[in-house]
Amino acid sequence: MRIGLFPSGQYRVDQGGDLVSSIHENVPKAVDFQQEKELNGSCQELRLEGARILLKKFSLENPSTVPYENLHSCLGLHFLLQGTYKFTGIENKAKVGIQSGHYNLVQWPSILGTQKFKGLDYTSVEIFFTRKFLEDLLGKEVDSVLRHFIAEDKEAKLLWSKGQVIPGKLRVPLLEMLNCPFSGSAKTNYIESQIRCLLIEVFLGRGHSIGEHGEAELPILDNEAIERVVGYIKQNLKKKLTIKELSEIAGFNTTKLKTCFKKVHQTTIFKYITRLRMERAKTLIVDENCSIAQASYEVGYSNPQHFTVAFKKTMGYLPSTLLSVI
């Protein structure tokens, strides 16, 4: 039974703590999600029969550590678009780490520990689900995709030791869910349908499915350099950005920057910048009631017509469509 989508609180120190309750006997429970003054943002939670989805968007002044308890064994698919995540078990010191721009499948036992969030911006989509939920979704294919997680384990277990780079084909629906312009039942149904399609693509899709047991290859220092570039881009969407300028931020030559960036984000730098600009413009129009001309200016376009063409090409619909949901 679907319970619904709701914001589980703004993460600010003056609100004390935020308790996220258990939603199904086989789904994890986050206990005493205590907030720190350095942690600001929001988390939305979608509750389904046998599954729980968390959409997180934080701003962090400093690394933040919060307690976490998982009461029942389950699987978790963690997509980390920005920031760094680390879980450390209290009893056995089990560790789960996910880097920015990567995803991983985790087998979660009943376990108590702490979660550490790092990064100026932290954005993630986390999907916790039971085996039965996946069986209902995938049918007979479930045995082959979960062959790595057949045995029960008392420790948290990662499918990939270093995680997988989030490809562009998966990044798009993740961003669409995080920036969903709808509300109420429309938002619930939209995100639920996107989650089901996303899981099917991850587990059965060609080129990046769970069944293809590969490893991310970019060195940590190179990955950190790319994230510096991404951070700079996000802070400067209004100005003209050049490959030369971004290369200096990364400390790479232009060729290495373009190669490493595409390996991490599965798209070119300028396509990535364009999508960020369109996502920002979408937020300005829907959430801040900006006109299309105002939004286009705020993301670096002096000509609204050029912006409209770029928006349609990137998002698949005209920006004027957003005016109907305000």
From TrEMBL:
<dbReference type="InterPro" id="IPR009057">
    <property type="entry name" value="Homeodomain-like_sf"/>
</dbReference>
<keyword id="KW-0805">Transcription regulation</keyword>
<dbReference type="InterPro" id="IPR053142">
    <property type="entry name" value="PchR_regulatory_protein"/>
</dbReference>
<dbReference type="InterPro" id="IPR018062">
    <property type="entry name" value="HTH_AraC-typ_CS"/>
</dbReference>
<keyword id="KW-0238">DNA-binding</keyword>
<dbReference type="GO" id="GO:0003700">
    <property type="term" value="F:DNA-binding transcription factor activity"/>
</dbReference>
<dbReference type="InterPro" id="IPR018060">
    <property type="entry name" value="HTH_AraC"/>
</dbReference>
<dbReference type="GO" id="GO:0043565">
    <property type="term" value="F:sequence-specific DNA binding"/>
</dbReference>
<protein>
    <submittedName>
        <fullName>AraC-type transcriptional regulator</fullName>
    </submittedName>
</protein>
<dbReference type="Pfam" id="PF12833">
    <property type="entry name" value="HTH_18"/>
</dbReference>
<feature type="domain" description="HTH araC/xylS-type">
    <location>
        <begin position="227"/>
        <end position="325"/>
    </location>
</feature>
<keyword id="KW-0804">Transcription</keyword>
